[in-house]
Amino acid sequence: MQNMGKTIGKSSFVIRHFWLCIPLFFLGALLLIVMVAGVSNSNNSCNSANIQVTSTADQKAMAKSIHDNLKNIEGVTEAGISAYLGNSQVESSLNASAIQSGKSYDEQKANNSSVHGYAFGFNQWDGGRRVNLLKEAKNQGKDWKDPSFQLDFALNHDGKDSDLLKQGLKMNSLEEATEFLRAKWERGGSGTTAQRTSYARKWYQEFSSGNDSESQLSSVDTSASTSTPSTAGCDTSSTKVSSGGAVKEIPSQYQDKITNRNFNVTDSSNTYPFGECTWYAYNRMKELGHPVPNYLQNGGQWADTAKAKGLTTSDKPSVGWAVSFKPGVAGAVAVYGHVAVVEAVSDDGKKFLVSESNVVDLGTGTVSFREITLGQGMTFIRGK
Description:
Layout: H1 2-8, H2 12-44, H3 59-71, H4 78-92, H5 107-110, H6 127-140, H7 147-156, H8 160-169, H9 174-186, H10 193-207, H11 277-287, H12 302-308, E1 313-314, E2 322-325, E3 338-345, E4 351-357, E5 367-373, E6 378-381
Antiparallel strand pairs: 1-6, 2-3, 2-6, 3-4, 4-5
Helix pairs in contact: 1-2, 3-4, 4-9, 4-10, 7-8, 8-9, 9-10
């Protein structure tokens, strides 16, 4: 270009600048293309624009929506997705609005990174991670309880923990992925590995199309799936119940004592996870005309929470009342306890029949019955 300028003379200035503009133009275009490609690649890595998690109280629908979103990420396996769902179910029952121990929202506490034991959301983010969750929600103009936002946060905005999550999601062993996410990503829940794995197995069996490696379930004993703990504290399988096994039909001695047999009625206002003991007790109490509130926490916590909300409680059974079992009582799992509904009381008052869910055919909403011997650790709750 310099030699051409010398021979052209007066016009050299114009021509020289003309040729200078061409590379600048193409440079600008190239930068624009790179920026667009960057946005496209970012979207492909699962930014919020691509995440649409169904907002629902139905646990299975929520799990399916999360599954379908995660399935779009390159390299993610069914084992990894199931491991995430199993961990999330234990953490929050797949409830994006969950606050640890059923506590109410406190702006000052929520934004204080030094406050612990006050975890939020699907994965119960606590401390500094909880604060980052709230800050990112504010930056995006989103509600922190938005399930789509929370999944986006977990994948893309949780610092190095987002990388750990993606690492776990790409593992081929369901058992290894579940424990990796518990220990390395959740960094909590010590002693709950079996519980998380059993739920992960349940979701794997629910959603897997069989395309992944057969090694995913090689180290998992699927025969144990019918006696695994429940996240809402409803593991009262017949192998653990000390006061009589659960049955699907009303025992003969109580047949004449029960008039309302609409056990499968569901109520649209129910926010408890589908199929859990809390979900059933809420539906049944509403059907019997003695409704209880949502957000009474795990089954074993209903007694204390109900009393705090002004409901009447007693240590004696009454027909149509809920009964809250402390952890370990009458076969209830040692972490969450259990809740059921009193359907009838024996003539001497020493035994009573309950209807309940998540005792047989876990997670399906199947109603079963048990005769319970009155004892310590049982509190009866009168609905409104």
